[in-house]
Design goal:
This protein has 296 residues and is an alpha/beta fold. 39% of the residues lie in helices and 17% in strands.
């Protein structure tokens, strides 16, 4: 028995299992950080993941990290996810971008589409109203049924509401003789005006032009009656703790990658042709408007 124990101890020592070093090495279980991004659901809210999948794939390849797209049910949800850190990057509208950056310190607007610095809204009307396109604000819409998009939409609500106030001296809740509606998205606004659910509405020009080009909206039946002045709108906003999560300088790297993007699939996802550099000051005008418009 004595010889057997000695033999076992000798054998154990030979393979290095006498000391504490023979304990199994602890595996590095810390998962690599994941960049999660979202976008305001401004149109076709059922197909967000499919729409933005090419952008997630491209960002992962360019940044050499895992990237996931996280759908948002509405405009407020995208801001909430940003504030809680569930997403670290978002394609916001002008208003939601302001809200998100105010909620999370050190957050930055980093790029916008080239057309986003001269964005505008259309006021549209069903042909049965008899309203035609005019260079002056159409005050006759006062007595027609009217719908915005989402209450958090820059081009589908906040800026149209601002121009109603600027041109009539009344906010939309006081100006219209009937309660206003909120379709929830730009494409739904166009569809609801075309089918007569509402007689008049407001939406972003880009969505309307695309729907007409795709023969989904008849411009004779669903007419443009007024165009707003231009303003800054959509943008990519980076979370204030992005560098903390991915390393110093990551936000600048992300901005550079987006500015250098040439991938047509990415631009198709955002309905843009190129990205240009912006910063928080670019959207100061929107922040000022937010303080003046009341929708409740």
């Amino acid at each position: 028995m004595k010889h057997t124990i000695i033999s076992l101890l000798t054998a154990a020592a030979a393979i290095g299992c006498i000391s504490t070093s023979c304990k199994p090495k602890e595996e590095n279980t810390e998962a690599a950080p994941v960049l999660r991004f979202s976008a305001i659901p401004d149109q076709d809210t059922t197909a967000q993941a499919e729409r933005y999948a090419p952008a997630a794939k491209w960002l992962a390849e360019q940044l050499n990290i895992k990237v996931e797209f996280v759908p948002s049910s509405d405009y407020a949800a995208s801001v909430d996810k940003f504030e809680t850190g569930d997403i670290q990057l978002a394609w916001f509208g002008g208003v939601t971008g302001v809200q998100a950056r105010n909620a999370v310190s050190n957050s930055r607007a980093i790029v916008a589409g080239a057309k986003d610095l001269k964005f505008k809204s259309y006021f549209i009307a069903h042909s049965d109203t008899g309203l035609m396109k005019s260079d002056t604000f159409p005050k006759k819409i006062k007595d027609f049924t009217f719908t915005f998009g989402s209450s958090g939409s820059t081009s589908g609500c906040v800026m149209p509401a601002f121009y109603i106030l600027e041109n009539t001296g009344q906010g939309p809740l006081d100006f219209f003789s009937q309660s206003v509606g909120f379709s929830g998205a730009h494409d739904k606004t166009a569809q609801q005006v075309q089918n007569g659910t509402y007689q008049v509405g407001a939406l972003n020009y880009s969505t309307y032009d695309r729907l007409v080009a795709e023969n989904k909206i008849d411009p004779e039946k669903c007419r443009i009656i007024w165009e707003t002045p231009t303003y800054a709108d959509y943008n990519f906003t980076a979370h204030g703790k992005l560098d903390e999560k991915f390393g110093t300088g990551f936000t600048d790297k992300l901005q550079k990658v987006l500015l250098e993007c040439k991938d047509p699939a990415v631009f198709k996802a955002f309905d843009r042709k190129e990205f240009i550099k912006v910063d928080n000051a670019t959207f100061q005008g929107i922040e000022n408007v937010v303080k003046t418009v009341k929708l409740k």
